[in-house]
């Protein structure tokens, strides 16, 4: 896949920027005035004018995700942060995979010595069959090689299949350190994957409990590797309890403070899995969630969805007690509707663009910005199946989408093609400069 290059024609740059800014103006008209996000408590401030580009699993649009080569390319393309998803091995090491089930991202199925480790497990309520990191030692995982997860969409990435090893979290930190030179600083944005599963619910292949706190392992690794600058690390999770525990117990115990980001699934359909598990197991919810229960109408139970965490009272409590930012799905904030028929927007003979933005912006964006929270939506991708039309029916590229997000006020976003994000930020900042109006 060729790399994206910033257009050089000034008229095109002006047109793209104006399009994004105008598309956002209606959403801003009724939103509360955003408070300026405080940045003074950070030793290092990455990005440009408060805007960051987060390489989603590395430059995963160009290399198999979560490999050191994907992270290295993302850094070369100008990303400020690289994002590793963290799962644990049998011997308690943190490795970087999108999921602990690895049949879709490695060649484990081609290793007959591991055939007997294929099994079925129910993780976060979903039954999965395959191979799981918690049933392998780190040394065993190091014999595997990565492969492209969505080969039908990114066939070019399959040329790297079978070549790239599974990376450890320590190796990702080492890479960020190594590439932080010549005045440039690289940050990391780790996500704990299925923390309730690893800590409380999950078992190894032999039935023994896993009992690993991903939060404790994550913080211990950051401390051991000397990577604790709060301007270079965000920690994110789709669960709530582990973030509260990080903020109130794990980080203070380690003597450090790092910004935490609450991820969101679909606001109405999805639920934080720790809500489901803890309520279902009749845990002491007051001890786990404290005042968040009172901030949510109806409290917390196994049916409480992410929508409950978008209301002002909940956001206010979250900011005061554990979060620095939110990571919502982009389609939950800028709502989409299906097109009557799919379109071939990129002219490759396949009609894969299937939605149009409705023009409605979910109020969580204005609420969060007004409270001074960071907002980092996920995931911008350049391929046609992930794109949409604008509300007025214009086919929207990843560059146009990135411009729209910056104009709506977010401070960063996750993107699979970091070079496009960097180009969009450059274009947005260039065309946002106000110059004196001169007579024609």
Automatic annotation (TrEMBL):
It catalyses: a sn-glycero-3-phosphodiester + H2O = an alcohol + sn-glycerol 3-phosphate + H(+). Keywords: Glycerol metabolism, Hydrolase, Signal. Residues 51-425 form the GP-PDE domain. Belongs to the glycerophosphoryl diester phosphodiesterase family. InterPro entries: GP_PDE_dom, PLC-like_Pdiesterase_TIM-brl. Its EC number is 3.1.4.46. Pfam families: GDPD. SUPFAM superfamilies: PLC-like phosphodiesterases. Residues 1-29 form the signal peptide. This is glycerophosphodiester phosphodiesterase.
């Amino acid at each position: 896949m060729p790399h994206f290059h910033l257009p050089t024609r000034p008229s095109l740059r002006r047109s793209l920027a104006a399009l994004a800014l105008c598309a956002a103006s209606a959403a801003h008209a009724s939103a509360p005035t955003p408070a300026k996000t405080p940045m003074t408590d950070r030793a290092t401030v990455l990005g440009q004018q408060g805007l960051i580009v987060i390489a989603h699993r590395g430059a995963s649009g160009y290399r198999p995700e979560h490999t050191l080569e994907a992270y290295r390319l993302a850094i070369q393309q100008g990303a400020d942060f690289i994002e590793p998803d963290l799962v644990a091995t049998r011997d308690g090491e943190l490795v970087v995979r999108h999921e602990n089930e690895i049949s879709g991202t490695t060649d484990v199925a081609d290793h007959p010595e591991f055939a007997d480790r294929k099994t079925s497990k129910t993780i976060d309520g979903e039954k999965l069959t395959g191979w799981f990191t918690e049933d392998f030692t780190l040394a065993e995982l190091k014999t595997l090689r990565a492969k492209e997860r969505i080969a039908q969409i990114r066939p070019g990435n399959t040329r790297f299949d079978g070549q790239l090893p599974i990376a450890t979290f320590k190796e990702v930190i080492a890479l960020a350190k190594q590439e932080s030179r010549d005045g440039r600083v690289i940050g990391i944005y780790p996500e704990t994957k299925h923390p309730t599963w690893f800590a409380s619910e999950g078992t190894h292949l032999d039935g023994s409990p896993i009992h690993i706190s991903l939060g404790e392992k994550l913080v211990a690794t950051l401390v051991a590797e000397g990577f604790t600058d709060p301007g270079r690390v965000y920690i994110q999770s789709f669960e709530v309890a582990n973030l509260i525990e990080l903020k109130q117990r794990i980080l203070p115990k380690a003597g450090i403070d790092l910004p935490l980001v609450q991820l969101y699934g679909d606001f109405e359909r999805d639920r934080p899995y720790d809500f489901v598990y803890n309520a279902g197991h009749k845990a002491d919810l007051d001890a786990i969630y404290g005042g968040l229960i009172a901030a949510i109408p109806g409290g917390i139970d196994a049916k409480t969805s992410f929508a409950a965490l978008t209301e002002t009272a909940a956001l206010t409590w979250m900011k005061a007690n554990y979060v620095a930012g939110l990571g919502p799905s982009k389609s939950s904030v800028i709502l989409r509707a299906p097109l009557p028929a799919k379109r071939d927007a990129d002219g490759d003979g396949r009609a894969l663009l299937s939605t149009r933005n409705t023009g409605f912006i979910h109020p969580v964006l204005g609420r969060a910005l007004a409270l001074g929270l960071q907002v980092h939506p996920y995931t911008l991708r350049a391929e046609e199946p992930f794109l949409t039309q604008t509300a007025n029916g214009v086919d929207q590229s990843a560059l146009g989408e990135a411009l729209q997000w910056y104009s709506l006020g977010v401070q960063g976003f996750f993107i699979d093609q970091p070079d496009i994000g960097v180009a969009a930020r450059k274009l947005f900042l260039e065309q946002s400069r106000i110059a004196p109006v001169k007579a024609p």
